[in-house]
Amino acid sequence: MSRILAHRAVLGVFALTVALFVLSGFIAPALLSGPSLRTVALLSSFVIIASLGQGIVILSGGLDLSIGSVITLGGVLLGAWVPQSNVGLWWAVPVILAIGTAFGAFNGFGVTILRIPAFVMTLATGIIVQSAVLEYTNGAPQATAAPQLIADLTDSKWWGLPIIIYLVLAFIVIGSLVQDMSSYGRLVHAIGANPKAGVVAGLRSNWVTIGCYAISGFCASLCGIVLLGFVGAPILSMGDPYTIESIAAVVVGGSSILGGVGTFAGTVGGALFLGVLSNDMTAIGMKAAWRTLIQGAIIVLALIVFRSLQAERNRGRAGGPMAGAKERLLGARKPAE
Amino acid sequence: MVGSSALTLYSRSPSSVSITLYIVMFVVYALAQGHFVTTPYGLSVLLNNSISLAVGAASLTFVVITGGFDLSLAGTVALTNTIISVAGFNGVGGAIEALLVVCVVGAIVGAVNGILVAYGRLQSIAVTLGTMIMTSGIALFMLNAPGGSVPDSIAYGLTGLLGPVPVAVIILVVFTAAAAVLLNYTRFGIGLFAIGQDRAAARASGVNVEWTEFRAYLTAGIVAGLSGYLVSAETGTGDPRFDASFLLLAFAAVAIGGTSFRGGRGTVVGSVVGAGLLELIQKTLFAVGVASFFTGMFEGALMILAVLVGSLGSLMAARRSAVS
Amino acid sequence: MDEVLHISNLAKAFGATQALQGVSFEIAPGEARALLGENGAGKSTCVKILNGLVRPDSGTIRLSGRDYRPAGLSDAQKAGVSTAFQELSLLPDLSIAINLAMPDLPTNGLNLVRFDEVRRRAAATLASYQIFDIDPASLVSSLTLSDKQRLEIIRALSRKPTLLVLDEPTAALTDVAWLYDQIRALKAEGRAVLFITHRLKEARDLCECATVLRNGEVAGTVDLAGTSDSELFRLMIGRSMGTAFPDRPDKTAPAARDKPEELVLSVEGLKSGAFGPASFSLRRGEIVGVAALEGQGQRILFNALAGIARITAGQVRIGGKPVKLRSPAVAKQLGISFVPEERKEEGLFFGLLTRANVSISNIGRVGRFGLVGRKTEIKQISGVSEAVDLASRYHDLPVDALSGGNQQKALIARTLFANARCLLMFDPTRGVDVGTKQAIYSVIQRAASDGMSILLYSTELRELTALSDRCIVIYGNRIVDECPAESLKEEELLERMHDAHAGRASKELEGGREQRVNSL
Fold it and tell me: Do the domain assignments include residue A313?
């Protein structure tokens, strides 16, 4: 998207979020308050972290359905290796991040070298990780508390905000640099926009793609680590909602689910928007089911919107981002004359 | 010569790999379980939990042959299973009502998919991901956690025997035959293959591509509803969450059954046998004493392998029938 | 009005390209009309319009006296127009019998397809066209290319059309005599045939008149008996308005003089897929043109050199050193840059800005510490942008907002930005306006004089003759001729391209059915 358009989309999401936040004040005055804002920011933090990875994978034209499981893995491993005190935190965190990244690279390997469809590969990995966690904890993770430092991230405050918010802000900066401003990010944009052209132009698509999934694994395990601090003790289902939530955040944030288009700034806006939305829904007492329903509807709507925007642009033959999934997965056929 | 033509037939048919593996696996399983397996009761136990997966895999087959994917299977199953668990259909009459209801629900989901994919030209993975989540969301309205109870008429209907033959077997055979006929002996079925092989050539050959593709998703939706019905029968309870494991097993079954994700070739029989094979492997692992947690890991690895084997299998079949 | 087909003032534009303009001709009953023209002259657009696949912007068509506006293929078929397509419209993994029957598959009371009837009909159809060596139950994919072509033709014939359209039907056909018989039978019945071909000999054998298209317009409708080959070539080529070529920079310019004999790229015994073996070389600062009719293997050659198609035999040397072009990334590293045929499908990244599209080939240059900076990027690509005459105001626009010509410029700018030694250009001026063509010609010449080696394939012979230092001719997946600088004239090039075929064709007829068209 052109610079102006991209800015517009991101601004749009943030504007919508602010508008929604203000509107929610009419529903319940308590919602338009500092504490409410703080809750939203805190809860959205985890989605934001997970969504960087998901966003980059989607940008490359794929999908990561293993995020939830890897988040759980991160939380459970940390809870098992560093119970309560901070002893061992210095090695446990890097090791967990490495494990998450490794699973991500495994996903990437399957998608690129083995040519397995992304949703199959990541779903499979998710199930593998999930059962590995199950096995490791024998079905019931220890009910220990999280390491002190990690718990402090969400409990203690600096200048009125939980520490983690500052960390997430730094994360947002780094994430934006990677996805929106780096040359690597450019490559991801390109292969997501037109995988075939990516190959023809010699962009080393395989390595770039593996990198995307590795980043996703990293982000997921990082999310699991900090999530443990918030949740208090490892729970087997702690990561579950984040798979879909991250996809929804990415999509609401203006990324095309088909790849090639999307900014992390937008994703952050999307995560915040969904955060405000679910905060409101909880306050009103709406059933959790609405959340799922709306997320699904959002994905479909985003598809329709993007397709019609694109149809306007490409009058005539199809091309560009519609060099679709099948070609991406299975190797393109020769274009007919 | 009969021998060579049989061999040709074997290597040409996409489902030959899965059938062979099934026979091999069955022998292994029989050895592990003993005599038990070959009795009607034993067979019934074997099949009891596999039928929903087999039907689910069949549902996917229709769409995969056109070159698409249908993730909404898991959502439709969750929704129909939930409906049966809470709606209170009772007795035989209720069982039939329930059957009709799941078909309608499945048809609606399938129609939405079909319109968006065939006419809207939206990507099937993304669309069906969305509808999967949405249908699960609707299910969550009816049941916010696993629970509810499936009426006896449905839950016990599967496990019985009709004479010496397990009901499950009858259902499976009848269903597979019907699906195979639909796929291989109707204009609609041929149209599906055509679209998957070469969309432009299909159009140039007179196939109404959009209408046929729409009906592929519609059919998949209805069959998905049936799969949900069978899940209700098998589990006796409702679960509004979409089962990723089930979805993945279904795709793996399709792949191992010889239906290529590329589209254009495949069989329903292969998918059904593939589903049986995967279930059989799980049961064998369990019988041999592999801890159930590990089964999950094996499942995941198995699915990856299944997709690989499947794509190899259909690649072999394709190469053999082509002369460069 | 007893004509079978009456076309009047047909016009069709695709974006900026005017594919057809003011096209008018008629075909009488019992007539076979040849439709001739260079690639891109508008022949396939005509075919698509006649089949209802494309709607004309203006003009009228009358079929057997009635207004003809097909909404799609089945409309066209019902009205009596049947086509054997150049890109075969057969379904590879379905049986021959089913393919022949499509879309009218006979069904029984239960609406199930009666395969026995399908097979019976197919056998009958094949027999009626004297084909006895094809088993209707076998899959289309098991057929040879020649038989597939035959099947495509039979399918069109079996619909008993009023107008039979044959689009390059003999490209893979081994038994051309068979086709001749069918066409003569059709003519005797008072039906009409539109025969699109580049093979003049066949056109003369079958047709009385030929309509020659050039640049989307009818250059003339001539009586074949009274028109020589060279006259036909002249009609096909003609002289279009105003594309003068920029003066060639002095060939003895210092850069070109610098190691003028240095072989940048040399290819020996190259084989890839059906193409080859082929050998040729490129020197520093040299532009080697590739002249070939549609689908003669040039695409495979370019894809092989670009690292996209696998090289199965032979050796490639770059700067004297043997290399393995394992992938486009490897080729890029070795200094080969590729301008692909389809800019939309294989070249550009829609959704990305123009400057991103240009800089992607050398992304490391446009920023520091792994980041991309807008100002740096624009500064870095300004050089190549100017070279291709791409206005800087386009840099910040999404590339899909640009016209076809500007898109092509951006693509070429990208390949220049990669700092390659050797440029492979596959039909770079396709679908591009006159002004852009000029710019592209300048770029090519300037790059060559700066020392770049260029392998240029173009379907416009004018370009090849004006730009190339020498020209290789490809036919039937082999390099069959090389045209040195002195004999680089369009008519002569065209003749060499056709001669290659003519030479082979006469050998075919002598050798009978066993002689296959060269390794197709």
Answer: no
